[in-house]
Amino acid sequence: MTNTWNDPNAHSEANKYQNPIPSRLLILQTVAKLINEGMAATAESLGMHFEILGDEEKFFALNNRLKAMLRDGQLIREDGIHFGIAPLPNIVRGKITSNAKGFGFLVLDDIPDLFVHEKQMRVVFDGDEVEAVANEFRGKPEARIINVIKRAHNEFIGILTSDDEGFMVQLGGANAHQPITLTDEDVAHWQAELGDSVKVAIIDFPTYQEYATGKITERLTGLNDRELIIETTVHNHGIPDEFSAAALEQAHDYKEPSATERKGRTDLRELPLITIDGEDARDFDDAVFAEKRAGGNYRVVVAIADVSHYVTPNSPLDVDAYERSTSVYFPHRVIPMLPEVLSNGLCSLNPKVDRLCMVADIKLSRAGNVTGYEFYPAVMHSKARLTYNQVNAFFDDPSNETLPDDLVRNPDVIKSVDTLHQIYQILDKKREERGAMAFETAETYIVFGEDGDIKDIKARTRGDAHKLIEEMMLLANTCAANFALKHELPVLYRNHDKPSDEKALRLSDYVKTFGLAFPSENPTHTDYQRIIAATKDRPDAVSIHSMLLRSMMQANYSADNIGHFGLAYDEYSHFTSPIRRYPDLMLHRAIKDFVTNKKGKKPLYKSLDEAGEHTSMTERRAEEASREVETWLKCHYMKRHVGNEFSATITTVTNFGVFVTLNELFIDGLIHISHLGEEYFTYDEKTQQLIGERGSVFGLGDLLTVQVAGVNMDLLQIDFALVEQLTQGGNAVSSKKKASKSRSEKAEKGKKSKKKARK
Hints:
One of its GO terms (molecular function) is RNA binding. The protein is of the alpha+beta class. It contains 20 helices and 34 strands. It has a five-stranded antiparallel sheet, with no helix packed on it. The chain has six domains: 10-85; 90-150, CATH 2.40.50.140; 155-221, CATH 2.40.50.700; 245-435 and 461-489 and 575-612, no CATH class; 498-552; 641-754, CATH 2.40.50.140. The longest helix has 32 residues, at 608-639.
């Protein structure tokens, strides 16, 4: 049968389909014509217009095309019958975030994220920037990708695999949906074997019809699991990990401080300044000293490595430092902001050597109020490199003979440490009075064996020595912020805004389940402190305080000071870590230029706003990468413990199960509702409980014994199964409630069902 319609895309349709129907363009033109003539535009009227209403096959195909045009936002049908022309598409631009299951989301700045269907994800990788049409499908916001603007990466790391069609590199995590094909010749050239980890460069990016093609650029042999996941994560997040030749040359050209470099600086080499850091720290960027003054007042000296002396504006070192803007910390590996010859050498306040520094010299009243301060460049000579454990042990027992001589046999150091401890106790009380947050959170560290494999995961404890150094750093940071504001210096401030009303409302609803009140808008420090105090002794305190933390805004760097809500400061900046944070280096330069009456050099960045956005982004990138590696390592560790049992606490209750934290290892995972027992559960949002029809109740803080049921390394998820419930609502369960059927019993039942089905 010959088509009777005049289709502008007839040729294209004929090439695509053996039995063509009207093209989308012709349908749009026809719908508009019918509406303009006051006629109904329905599937039947269109079928009549195109004279295919009686052709069952073509009319069926027309209906399918109309549905597709509704889905793609070309047509609208408000009453379910009559079609109309959809408004011009809303073109949006954003970044793709992928899920290992194949779907994804388009992350946008000003509107909620848009769902991206698995089919659309075929052409993109995680992190790609795209243009898309924002529309709705079945009432849900969705994005249809129309153009890839910028690729996040051109190289990837994955595992060499093969199928019937040849070799490919299987990526992990968010890009698990995108295998990259390789030629046999390329694999043979590199003598790569199945299961090898390889780095591959993209030749052709994927299309809707074809996978991406690539070529191997490196075989990653000889790396243990920890080293490989760190290498992969650094690569995937685009974290620079190699310094330019010019930056390395500049760093190596510097020598130990000379008399010329010391000239014009305050000489503090006789002052008993000391560093207090972790056991495995190698870069010491801060040293402290304190003494009592007349009338019960105090003097605190905080000396910070003078990085600005070495990393000069617009130099090769400055270019690399700004690009990184922060050091990135992984278990047993650091990607430093500065080359190690500086960060562990000339810019590290190592003991018994002269070092250039910038000093915050602060005067305090006996009540801990700042009565004056001054900043100046100096030269110092650290009298001791002490650890937190050593200083904590000294506080516990000053006569402990196992402590280093630099501490216990140096009266000047002892006197300073004792005074620092007194000041810390005063400042800690002031911290509480001003309403600074003090959350109960669990920090862990991973213990590795000599082979690089995980041996254990332990809780990290914080003693008075940690808190003492923290308070001295806060003191220097606030004085630096005040100085910068007073003199209108071109610096970045460390801002932490108050929670949004939306987050406050969510938190208000959450704490109501504990019988506590919290304002649904404009919460104060006092409101948070009240919740912290009321919940600190609960078994689920860590979970509750994590929710409090998540209700807050993310801290960032900005040219405008708005204060720090979490620390309860009206003005705050970062001054104390220029080795590993670029905003600190910016602040050092500005203060030193001012106090030495020098004109600052033009910086790399075009504006302070640009610098604030960049340094905030690099900080988030570093945190995400570190968190990703730690989560991967914990999941990898738990893979070896599938089937093992652990004690756990319920930290979150949902309508699909409960999330628990292992009490000894601080690892989180889900017990799906199907693993809680053979009964029907109802989710009570008010009480945050799952209530079973046979009387079982699971709520926040309940103690359980759980079994590791499985680990998904792509999704980085751990699944647990209930073994028994030990407490409910803080009370011991009289007759231990066990899961009605063990997983092995369920599996056996499943095998029998399959056998029966085959018969």
